[in-house]
Amino acid sequence: MVEEATALTREPKREGLSLAELGKKIKSENEALATLIAGIVPRAIGIGKDLNAAKARIAHGGFLKWVKLNCAMTDKTAERYMKLAANEDKLLAKLRELSAEGDKFETISNLSLAQAERLITERNAEGGGNGDNVSDAYDRAQDKLMEKLDALSAEVAEAAAAETIERLKVIVEAKKKIAKAA
Question: Where are the domains of the chain?
């Protein structure tokens, strides 16, 4: 029997598998996925350390071009990895704190990249900053907006997006006028 290739992987057909065979397959795939996920943050930190080392050796202004030509990743991805690497100690300290509080994140291996980023960018309890910049705050707000938009019906989402776009255009135009006047 010839297996058909899917867009993502080659999968055997599911028809004809017994419940026991399906159970074994599901268990095996789940274990493989858990193993893969467990290595995401540590690998991202390692890549970030390598990117930081490369940046230190490249002339000012040439790093992002070098990333584009040599690393097959976006600037944003490179920045994300570098930020995780630069904040590894902070991340590990936050994980120790959460583990002591009985939180579910006992080790770095239990985190997604987004969770790791949130842990290193959370504001501390005293309300102080953490070096977070306006761009990072905007990205988080945009992500929340996308989540909320995704929860709406198609018609409501379309109307909400159109209204948001118009409001954003007004803000940008006002900023342009202020910049011109200055």
Answer: 17-128, 141-182
